[in-house]
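We modelled the chain as a single entity of 264 amino acids. Its sequence is:
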Amino acid sequence: FSQEISGWREMTEKGKSMIEASLPGLRELALGGTAVGTGLNTPRGFSEEAIKILSELTDKPFIPEKNKFHGLASRDALVFAHGALKALAANMMKMANDIRWLASGPRCGLGEITIPENEPGSSIMPGKVNPTQCEAMTMIAVQVMGNDTAVGLAASQGNFELNVFMPVCIYNFLQSVNLLADGTDSFCKNCVSGIKANRERMDWNLHNSLMLVTALNPYLGYDNGAKTAKKAYRENMSLRDACAELGFMSREQFDQVIRPEAMI
């Protein structure tokens, strides 16, 4: 389970690094380009001085766009940055789904973890714990993915040296930022930080999974592994017992092979 969580952790860290990698492009401003990038009627040094003041006011290192014809016609920096937001949203969707499936149960689902009970329960099923934080996170992810389409299409509408779709670009971009910021914060506080592992259920699922036979391939070979899995399924027994009854491996040998550290 710790290995699985390490994957979730890496998803968030990768998402953060991708967002950070997109920031330099967002810091380039076409301010002072005036008419289609020519800078017509702009006082000398206006761009540099205005951007310097903006940087001081915001405490952000903005710089002048080197090619203002590009800066006014293209929204590629926003597309690139929103792509990083979309990547984070995709990771959060996967993580939230994993958590709600792992928490499904307690008897008719996986039930390998428990999540915090943030509400009294289901309106129809007494005692049922709904994965509302996971559901909220997945809905946010869907919205961000939709916003990414809007940002991309808007960015493609630059005609000649001007893109007039900037309002719809920034509307969707900022919505995605706010949704992900608030959503991940709530998801962490009200769900992830309260996850508890059900060790007994995990142990049962592990040792009763027929596909655990994959770890036996180096010892039994594919054909004997298949025989073991089919016998265990037909006779409703564990792989451990099936393997021993077929004479392929003793129960003690099986226990030595099927260990987490042996399967890394």
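As a brief sanity check on the tokenised model: The chain has a mean pLDDT of 94. The first strand starts at residue 28 and ends at 29.
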